[in-house]
Amino acid sequence: MENQPYSILLYYCYATIEDTEAYREEHHLFCIENNIRGRIIISPEGLNGTVSGLKEDCEKYMAYIHADPRFAKTEFKIETFDKHAFAKIHVRVKPEIVHSSLRHLDPNVKTGKHLAPEEFKALKDQEDVVILDVRSNYEHELGRFKGALTLDIDNFRDFPEKVKELEHLKGKKVLTYCTGGIKCEKASAFLLEQGFQDVYQLHGGIIKYGMEAGGEDFEGKCYVFDNRIAVDINKVNPKVIATCHICGTECDRMVNCANPTCNAHLPICEKCGWEMEGACSVECKDNPEKRTYDGTGYYQKNTNGYNPYKGLIRRQDKAKQPLHEQKDPGIRADHQS
Q1: What b/e readout covers 222-254, taking b as 16+ CB neighbours within 10 angstroms?
Q2: How far is it, in rounded angstroms, from Cα 33 to Cα 37?
Q3: Which reactions appear under catalytic activity for this entry (predicted)?
Q4: pLDDT score recorded for residue 321
Q5: Which of 70, 165, 284, 324 has the fewest other C-beta atoms within 10 Å?
Q6: From CA 40, how far away is CA 37, in angstroms rounded?
């Protein structure tokens, strides 16, 4: 909706970052100063993030990314929302921008052919084509393309092992897809390395397909990694494919189990949600540490005392003074949750 004041940005960029710690601090400071919240990963191979903020703040953030020559090619998937999709800002350094166990592959050197949403739509139903979902179980069980091949994996790092089961498809056109495109960069590159000849990827992922091609033939909802949990994609021929984990009725309402030890991501209908107090089993319902269920199945961590400057070495306006020596970190009111 155009009148929604906030934007949610989903993006990634494979690019070399030499001093990841220094860039992490710079990036973190920019987010704080412009009230950007979300989760950002910085690694020697690039950037990966989902963030939210007021539209004007997100415009500044995108300009900040594009102003750096290393990330000038970054493409943003932009959605609108009525509030922040995150309560905090986290900028972390990790070995990879998506945990793949495929660090030796550089998508800037070789990867599958990128297909724009309309190109993917035109190609996906041809006889010699296989649509391959490279996401984890809890994601594709909630929603997936009609006729897509899914893999039994709990984490993307398990993908390489599962490719052994796809040897019989080497003569086909393989169309890979994921939420925003980042997993397909490595997945399609690995397929090519393993001898697959005709490999493609949905550029911008499911999110962009929904925006630009109406989401046709994507059945169910798309799991997303922010407070929304799941979003509608298909505006043409939507269909619910998930079933309630408790009673088996059709359900695309995604929740986290109220037992924090379990915390499984599962579809649970509203009726069972209340009856089970947000738990996915009797054992979880009886767990003494079970969280209070409020009908949403989403549990925000306690943000009391949250300090967005935590972990920073110094402030830009006090460049030579360590943060722990500053009496007033200068946190703006709109950064506190």
Answers
A1: bbbebbbbbbebbeeebebbbebbbeeeebbbb
A2: 11
A3: uridine(34) in tRNA + AH2 + O2 = 5-hydroxyuridine(34) in tRNA + A + H2O
A4: 44
A5: 324
A6: 9
CA 70/CA 96 separation, integer angstroms? 17
Whole-Å CA distances, 103 to 30, 44, 190, 208, 256: 28, 10, 11, 26, 31
**Contact indicator for 55, 5 with CB cutoff of 8 Å:** yes
- pTM of structure: 0.87
Question: What are the helix (H) ranges across the chain?
Answer: 20-33, 55-67, 117-123, 137-140, 159-162, 182-193, 205-213, 270-275, 282-285
Rounded Cα–Cα distance for residues 115 and 219 (Å): 20
Residue spans of the chain under pLDDT 50:
1, 315-337
Between CA 31 and CA 53 the distance in angstroms is 10
Angle, vertex CA 58, rays to CA 55 and CA 63, nearest 5: 130
Domain that holds residue 15: 6-93
Task: Provide the H-helix boundaries in 128-265.
Answer: 137-140, 159-162, 182-193, 205-213
> Within a domain: residue 314?
no
Other CB atoms closer than 10 Å to residue 70's CB: what's the count? Answer: 15
Both tokens assigned to 21 = 């710690």
Token digits for 290?
């079970």
Q: Quote the number of domains for the chain.
A: 3
69-101-76 Cα angle (round to 5): 35
Say which of 13, 31, 58, 178 is annotated catalytic: 178
Is there a catalytic annotation at residue 178?
Answer: yes
The number of C-alpha atoms within 13 Å of 95 and in the hemisphere containing its C-beta is 6
Q: Taking the C-alpha atoms of 252, 303, 262 and 140 in order, what is their torsion angle to the nearest 10 degrees?
A: 30
What's the pLDDT score for residue 313? 66
Q: Are residues 138 and 214 in the same domain?
A: yes
Q: Residue 98 — left, alpha, or beta (φ > 0 → left; ψ -120 to 50 → alpha)?
A: beta
In three-state secondary structure terms, 95 is coil
324 within domain boundaries: no
